[in-house]
Amino acid sequence: MSFGEKIASIMERPGQDPVSKDDVPWYMKYAGRGVGTVGGFIAIFLGAWNCIGILLGDVSCLISGMWQMVAGFLVIIIEAPCCCMFLDFVQSVSDNVERRPYWNRAAVYCIIALPAIFLCLGVSSILGSGLIFATGVIYGLMSIGKKGQVADPAGMSSPSGVVSPPSGTGASDHHTTLMEDPDVWRPT
């Protein structure tokens, strides 16, 4: 067993299928989990730091700090349920979220990160909620999928620069494109 396989087996969730069902690269999955877990802990710590703003009479920073701590805890529940084993419902919530598409998680992370920034614009709220937002961006990129391969014939064009229509689509050979017939379009 190679070193990479050992690390992958350590990072697997309990009951996870060892064969991936999607075509997302392994480093994107671990980046999402890692940034989410670390970002959740940092968001909780910096949210508590924002709550100190009540000493200066800034109620919006108190609300922002509480929101940021709840958002950080939610991200930790979803991304690293092993950190909250003492709560009964955590594993079921995490498994439920795992079955959802990546874009759902991306949307939720990006949405829950924004209110703390809007309520109290400061370094601690930007850094704490920014890491949660970055996790949402990573999951958004995962939902898009990977780009086409180099040898993908659908993305290749002919040497003349004209992309021929795929066979079997009912397109006939007499179909004219802008690139084939110079009388169709002329630059001025």
TrEMBL record:
The keyword Membrane applies. Residues 155-171 have a biased composition (Low complexity). One of its GO terms (biological process) is endocytosis. It is a multi-pass membrane protein. Residues 155-188 are annotated as: Disordered. The chain crosses the membrane at residues 35-57, 69-94, 106-139. It is found in: Cytoplasmic vesicle, Secretory vesicle, Synaptic vesicle membrane; Endosome; Presynaptic cell membrane. This is Calcium channel flower. It comes from Fopius arisanus.
